[in-house]
User: Which sequence fits this backbone?
């Protein structure tokens, strides 16, 4: 474990205090099944990684999308076992589904049933990937009831973040065209940074290939000028419609909501809780100077800080502790 991650884990335990102890004790005797709901790149994977480390051997991270990708690879190797198990129609659905073409409902049901029938009996589950469409809501509610009968406490946890922060994350993503190393101009790590006089922009270089990183290709997030396309906002709107409808069909004991940004004037934590981004400048010798500053945005006409995992996971633990008290 790298020192920064270890420091964040210890901070989260200390900062969440009695909520950490409450959740830890609950996980010793009960299993949770948590549907993680959020817009794209809010940070669910990072938060799950932190929770798995904070509560050792208590959580298992299950992704519907990763399962689909695994099954597609298995079909390429030998599709006969899957055809025998699920039928030709489902296998064809798995072969032809994509980001643009979602898996049909009948096959969603079969894959989800497969997932919940093969869960580890001694762990709580952090689940990501459903529902993505309004039509999938009855499936997750139905399976949620089944999971409850099997002893899980089912929680739908919606995590939201200011769109301005999500925009910044999307347009800052970079990838090496040669080795596919990925990074971010917003939060650079191992990359070398230089100032391009021609484009008047700061450029990150791949630490492996020493060539400039480029905008991610094929993710359909940006137009040719590096601006967000309308499809991004349509997906966010669709997510909110799904989450709002889902919430109306669940009780307060099942649905929880939290934000991973906080109004600046209300923030009472320490710097480790804030997401720090790079602020670039160039000195008289042409050297790039990087200063780390808290990321801010405007949400509902207020200036907010973007929370780093240390701050976000403290909120998640607090929220989960509140739900299990209900």
Assistant:
């Amino acid at each position: 474990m790298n020192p920064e991650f270890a420091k964040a884990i210890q901070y989260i335990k200390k900062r969440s205090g009695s909520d950490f102890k409450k959740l830890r004790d609950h996980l010793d005797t009960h299993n949770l099944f948590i549907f993680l709901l959020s817009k794209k790149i809010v940070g669910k994977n990072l938060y799950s990684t932190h929770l798995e480390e904070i509560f050792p051997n208590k959580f298992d991270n299950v992704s519907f999308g990763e399962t689909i990708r695994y099954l597609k690879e298995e079909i390429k190797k030998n599709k006969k076992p899957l055809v025998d198990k699920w039928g030709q129609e489902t296998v064809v659905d798995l072969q032809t589904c994509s980001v643009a073409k979602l898996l049909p409902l009948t096959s969603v049901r079969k894959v989800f049933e497969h997932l919940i029938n093969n869960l580890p009996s001694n762990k709580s589950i952090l689940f990501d990937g459903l529902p993505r469409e309004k039509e999938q809501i009855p499936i997750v509610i139905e399976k949620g009831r089944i999971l409850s009968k099997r002893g899980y406490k089912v929680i739908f946890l919606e995590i939201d973040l200011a769109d301005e922060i999500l925009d910044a994350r999307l347009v800052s993503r970079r990838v090496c065209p040669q080795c596919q190393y990925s990074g971010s101009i917003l939060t650079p790590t191992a990359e070398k940074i230089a100032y391009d006089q021609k484009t008047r922009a700061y450029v990150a270089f791949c630490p492996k290939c020493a060539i400039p990183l480029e905008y991610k290709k094929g993710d359909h997030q940006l137009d040719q000028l590096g601006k967000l396309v309308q499809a991004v906002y349509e997906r966010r709107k669709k997510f909110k419609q799904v989450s709002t409808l889902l919430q109306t069909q669940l009780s307060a004991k099942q649905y929880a909501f939290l934000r991973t940004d906080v109004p600046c004037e209300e923030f009472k934590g320490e710097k480790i809780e804030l997401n720090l981004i790079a602020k670039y400048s160039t000195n008289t010798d042409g050297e790039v100077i990087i200063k780390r500053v808290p990321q801010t945005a405007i949400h509902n006409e207020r200036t907010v800080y973007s929370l780093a995992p240390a701050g976000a996971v403290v909120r998640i633990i607090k929220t989960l502790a509140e739900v299990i008290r209900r």
